Amino acid sequence: MNRRNLIWIIVSFLLSVATIFYFVNYPGGKMAARLLNFETITKAYQQHILMVFVASAAAIIVSVSLGILITRPFFSKWASIVDNIVNIAQTIPSLAILALFFTYLGRGFSTAIFALWLYALLPILRNTSAGIQNISPGIIESARGMGMSNLHILTRIELPLALPVIMGGIRTSVVITVGAAALASFIGAGGLGDLIVTGLSVSRNTLVVAGGILSALLAIFLDQVLDLIEDSLRIR
Amino acid sequence: MIKIKYENVVKQFPGSDHLAVDNLNMEVHEGEICILVGPSGCGKTTSMKMTNRIFEHTSGHIYIDGVDNRDINPIELRLGIGYVIQEIGLFPHMTIADNVATVLVEKKWPKNKIHQRVEEMLNLVGLDPEIYSKRRPSGLSGGQRQRVGVARALASDPPVMLMDEPFGAVDPITRARLQNEFLRLQEQMKKTIIFVTHDIDEAIKMGDRIAVMRYGQLVQYATPDDLLSMPANDFVSSLVGGNRSIKRLNLIKVEDIDLYRPPEVAEGDSKTKVVEAVAGDKLGVALVVDDRGKLVGTVTNTDLKRKGEYVKDIYAPAHDLVGPKSTLRDTLSIMLGYGEGYALAVDQEGKPRGAVSVDDIFSAVKDNE
Ligand SMILES: Nc1ncnc2c1ncn2[C@@H]1O[C@H](COP(=O)(O)OP(=O)(O)OP(=O)(O)O)[C@@H](O)[C@H]1O
Ligand SMILES: [Mg+2]
């Protein structure tokens, strides 16, 4: 157990609770109070976490499978092409992706999920293929030399060895998604971003600040939880 | 009986303009250790890896028990061949026990049988399962990892073993010990082994037959004795080196010669008794054994100057012992390091077998020539 992770997890959790209580008690006006109450904030959290969860889960499934696929000898020629696409796509700002999908798919939750998913794919894919490729060839060769089938080499050797690295990719991806999901409110997907967007449009600073702090703390919280998991998977 | 046969085997790697293995013809006899030796890049590893089809040969045939290895399913083929590679290749995420169990799991052995077998294998290579089976490879020394590599390859008792510099990455003393232990095992196992090394001393010590390779070609295939006395050409002569009498010391093991036995005393014996024993010995040494008969130390005139009533108060602890499988060359270097005119030999149980003196080495070389 890593003390530093635990402290951050507890601190970010307590700070979130404190922030919510503060702004519910001091919403800074009637208008803001309509959003700064427990019910609305809970709903915003639910939407936000659901968005992050669905987009990340879908991204994990697709990226890990794709990462495994491009590291098979048969597809090895594709690996660098996929890597390049991934690296270029990663440089497009998340807001731009949201805007793009908004134009073609319209407003709403599923559009947001789709855009977030696409953005979340990249770090996981890159780490999966890097994690597998960086395993020392001697390890794979001795597995093969002892008569392991390709499937067993994948499931018993490659995936367990790459798991900490894959987990690192998942962590990066989730943190990015938490941030990007705050922007998803612009296309009407709800979440903690609602506080910010509404706050901006009716110029109520308390809303903007509350939304900003809460989504930042959520990102820190999830980052530390995943770091803890990643750490426990590391091979010593 | 011929176990493995290479017939006009050629290997050319894609995109390479030279042959990594150039028309290899060689027969490996059942129950023998066949050593592949030669300079770096001469094709030793490649020849070995074609045997279990890690590399596919470009042309020619490799027969195992008379069956072309291309007619055997690669997984089946490999499950029947123990494999230790140059970098050992232990799985870092698995415990030592799981590493050793790899082939057994692939062969779908029942769990309790695997457990039993793993313990047996770890004991066989001198690692206490109580201490080591739950550790990971990172918690082991280089020598211990090599042992695990050997245990893993032996676990399913395959008739054939391929070993690529299995004792490469350890210090000379550990290496000599691992070699001795392996030779002792092989005496009982009688496996057919292809063993790669670029150390000619190791080749002479370990090999029943030695294949000298150069530029992908087999230069000479002979017993160590013949290789030393009849090198096929200048390359082989220079490989075995100018001083062949010294190399010959690699051929003779401690168990092959008659040993002089210095007097023995027990830990509990009185000092008077050991004074007599030392005085009456031609090397001026008495061997101290414990109640189970193990050699624990020695007493010489220097030790007699120490105060104490009993042997256990004055003896010097034993160190740098040689075993039955140690070569006279190992013995000579221990002797030189030890600074005495002799080295002490023990058997597998650690009981004293006697002393090897410089004279013994001289006469053994003379007889052998
Ligand atoms: N996978 C490979 N692809 C291309 N060429 C290779 C490959 N493996 C070996 N070679 C080449 O084949 C030749 C023989 O190599 P090999 O590994 O068999 O040498 P070796 O005798 O085992 O040397 P060392 O003592 O350094 O291990 C070398 O020229 C090497 O560069
Ligand atoms: Mg080699």
Task: Draw up the topology in text.
The complex is a heterodimer of chains A (236) and B (369).
Chain A: H1 3-25, H2 30-33, H3 38-70, H4 76-90, H5 94-105, H6 109-133, H7 137-145, H8 150-183, H9 193-201, H10 205-233
Chain B: E1 2-11, E2 21-29, E3 33-37, H1 44-51, E4 59-64, E5 67-68, H2 74-79, E6 81-84, H3 96-106, H4 111-124, H5 129-132, H6 142-154, E7 160-164, H7 172-189, E8 192-197, H8 200-206, E9 209-214, E10 217-222, H9 224-229, H10 234-240, H11 244-248, E11 264-266, H12 271-279, E12 285-289, E13 295-300, H13 301-304, H14 311-314, E14 316-317, H15 328-338, E15 342-346, E16 352-357, H16 358-368
Parallel strand pairs in B: 3-8, 3-9, 6-7, 7-8, 11-12
Antiparallel strand pairs in B: 1-2, 1-4, 4-5, 9-10, 12-13, 13-14, 15-16
The site of adenosine-5'-triphosphate has 11 residues of chain B, from helix 1.
Textual characterization of the structure:
The complex is a heterodimer of chains A (236) and B (369). Chain A is mainly α and 236 residues long. Chain A has a single domain (3-235), classed as MetI-like fold (Orthogonal Bundle). Helix content of chain A is 82%, strand content 0%. Chain A has ten helices and no strands. The two termini of chain A are 14 Å apart. The model of chain A has no long low-confidence stretch (mean pLDDT 88). By secondary structure, chain B is α/β, with parallel strands linked by helices. Chain B has two domains: 2-243, Rossmann fold (3-Layer(aba) Sandwich); 255-367, CBS-domain (Roll). Chain B is built from 16 helices and 16 strands. In chain B, strand 12 (285-289) and strand 13 (295-300) form a beta hairpin. The longest helix of chain B is centred in the middle third of the chain and has 18 residues, at 172-189. The chains are: A mainly alpha (236), B alpha/beta (369). Chain A binds chain B through residues 136, 138-139, 141-149, 152, 157, 160-161, 235-236, and chain B through 49, 52, 54, 75-81, 83-93, 102-103, 106, 136, 138, 152-153, 162. Magnesium ion is lined by residues 44-45, 86, 164, 196 of chain B.
